Amino acid sequence: MSLDATKPIAQERPLVSIVIPMLNERNGLRPLFDRVAQAIKDTPVEWELVIVDDGSTDGSRDVIAKELSRFSRWRLVFLSRNFGQQPAYRAGLEYARGDAVIFLDADLQDPPELIPELLAKWREGYKVVTGSRTGREEHGLRRLLFDSFHQLFHRMTGRVMPIDSGMFSLVDRVVVNQLLAARETNLFLPALKCWYGFSQTTISYARKDRAVGEPKQSFRKLFRYAFDGLFSFSDLPLQWIAVVGAVISVISFGYAGFLILVRLLQLAGYLASLDVKGFTTLAVAIFCLSGIQLLSLGIVGQYLARIYREIKSRPLYVVETVLTSDEPRRIQESRPG
Ligand code: UDP
Ligand code: MG
């Protein structure tokens, strides 16, 4: 028996699933499927496409199945409404049957042409192959926020996931099963898929701008996604609050002691009585301390809200219908994920 954690895949023609979540990506369907079909054409594995429609309202619902028919194996999962990118990926995982799963956004920011490279690393024996970005084409505020988040996340969580990486990756079935067993509501799959360990590697690529359409992750969704990542992988903010509280307490006790001493000396006649001054000091102290207290309360609240969401254990998504290339072709169901 080999003890090597990166034992190469021996199976003759394993099945690999490509999971793609979509929200209103109608105009990008054709180029996406063209490029995916081209990328997987001469690879030595069987392919399955798992498309998750996350409550699209642009008419793409009616055309995805038609576009998909050029692939021999596919599953098309319609969610009952828009649940968000992470729940959509999680729904895709549930329906993927592959020995490995590739996560791919629909907007072609992560080039499908790299799929053979992900596959080659998996066949070498790696269980998690993550795309690490050497650059980005995004600009402006979005770019600034992405860069700041990745720096902050890396500093706060250490080496949970490769810096500047996201969903674009391949995970082996052993990791897929772990992800399916996790019942986290505040999902942050980019880091969670790496958290389990196993043998991991990266491939480098430059992230493009969106091929068509507007980003579907609005700023509100991106902020929530970022906070889910930070708060579910680090409790440093709670420690910061404790440290700030301790420092302020030490300073306050020291200052209180000093004031008491001055007062005693005045009473004993060693010091002359001073006019009451210090309104500015008082006002600044009150404002600053109130700000720090509210901020601390907000941070605690972020954790509390997430605990609340976790204990409610609502489903992450609800599946409305599933279409498949198998026989019988249609699985009609409505069930929680
Ligand atoms: N997406 C989704 N549901 C959402 C938001 C986005 O399924 O609520 C999909 C979207 O169609 C795309 C992928 O998730 O395939 C990434 O979204 P986007 O490109 O907007 O995000 P970003 O590139 O900013 O991470
Ligand atoms: Mg994108």
What are the low-pLDDT stretches, counting only 5+ consecutive residues below 50?
none
Give the rounded overall mean pLDDT: 88
CATH architecture of the largest domain: Alpha-Beta Complex
Question: Which CATH class of the largest domain applies here?
Answer: Alpha Beta
Number of strand segments: 9
Strand percentage: 15-25%
Number of domains: 2
Number of helices: 10
H and E string: EHEHEHEHEHEHHEHHHEE
CATH homologous superfamily of the largest domain, by name?
Answer: Spore Coat Polysaccharide Biosynthesis Protein SpsA, Chain A
Describe this structure in words.
By secondary structure, this protein is α/β, with parallel strands linked by helices. It has 2 domains: 15-234 and 314-335, Alpha-Beta Complex (Spore Coat Polysaccharide Biosynthesis Protein SpsA, Chain A), CATH 3.90.550; 236-312. The chain is 47% helix and 19% strand. It has helices at residues 29-40, 60-68, 85-95, 115-124, 140-157, 173-181, 189-195, 219-233, 236-267, 279-312, and strands spanning 15-22, 46-53, 74-79, 100-103, 128-136, 165-172, 200-207, 318-324, 330-336. It has a 9-stranded mixed beta sheet, sandwiched between helices. The mean pLDDT is 88. Bound molecules: uridine-5'-diphosphate and magnesium ion (MG). Magnesium ion (MG) binds at residues 105, 107, 109, 210, 215.
Compile the SSE list and pairings.
Elements: E1 15-22, H1 29-40, E2 46-53, H2 60-68, E3 74-79, H3 85-95, E4 100-103, H4 115-124, E5 128-136, H5 140-157, E6 165-172, H6 173-181, H7 189-195, E7 200-207, H8 219-233, H9 236-267, H10 279-312, E8 318-324, E9 330-336
Parallel strand pairs: 1-2, 1-4, 2-3, 5-7
Antiparallel strand pairs: 3-8, 4-6, 5-6, 8-9
Helix pairs in contact: 5-8
The site of magnesium ion has 5 residues, from loops.
